[in-house]
UniProtKB/TrEMBL annotation:
It comes from the Eukaryota. It is a single-pass type I membrane protein. This is Ig-like domain-containing protein. Residues 34-118 form the Ig-like domain. One of its GO terms (cellular component) is external side of plasma membrane. Residues 1-20 form the signal peptide. It is found in: Cell membrane. PANTHER family: BUTYROPHILIN SUBFAMILY 2 MEMBER A2-LIKE-RELATED, T-LYMPHOCYTE ACTIVATION ANTIGEN. Its main location: membrane. Keywords: Cell membrane, Disulfide bond, Glycoprotein, Immunoglobulin domain, Membrane, Receptor, Signal, Transmembrane, Transmembrane helix. Pfam families: V-set. It comes from Conger conger.
């Protein structure tokens, strides 16, 4: 009887291990330009290691394989990191840009979960010209800020409003 129970347990354990990974992921994530996000995707049984896995951006004919066992796509080089925990396929994206927003797909063992990433950029309040008084030989501070302090602009450009519209600063 004990041998039979042991055999049943071994077979059920083997079936569980062979069955692969059942995925779990949230539906949507919001990030901010210049920041980082984690797109969570994991096997529901944390001990399961998927036989095959990959991340896609905008899945479809013109989509990008962002990550697979072959490595990371050039667009995401030095910005994408996959968790190294067994069964955890979470993707960390850093230095977000507005173009990173869209549909991401986590695939493992023939299953997939889609996650929509929304990236919010910097919006300036348009209150019109702000008069600043400066004196020759002294410095002035020109105020400029995003309406939401969590957001960071992708680039900054200061232009002098003159007849020639001279570029003062670009970063």
């Amino acid at each position: 009887m004990e041998t039979m129970l042991l055999c049943v347990w071994l077979v059920s354990s083997l079936i569980h291990m062979i069955s692969g990974c059942s995925l779990s992921a949230p539906g949507g994530v919001t990030g901010y330009t210049g920041g980082s996000v984690v797109l969570s995707c994991s096997c529901t049984d944390g001990g399961t290691i998927p036989g095959s896995a990959r991340w896609l951006f905008q899945p479809g004919p013109s989509g990008i394989t962002l990550w697979s066992s072959g490595g990371v796509h050039n667009r995401y080089k030095d910005r994408a990191l996959i968790s190294d925990s067994p069964g955890n396929l979470s993707l960390r994206l850093s230095d977000l840009t507005l173009s990173d927003g869209g549909l991401y797909r986590c695939e493992a063992d023939g299953q997939f979960e889609d996650i929509t990433l929304t990236v919010k950029g910097c919006v300036f309040s348009d209150s019109g010209p702000i008069p600043i008084t400066g004196f020759t030989g002294h410095s002035v501070v020109l105020p400029c800020a995003c309406t939401d302090v969590q957001k960071k602009p992708e680039q900054i450009k200061w232009t002098a409003v003159t007849e020639s519209k001279a570029l003062l600063y670009f970063h």
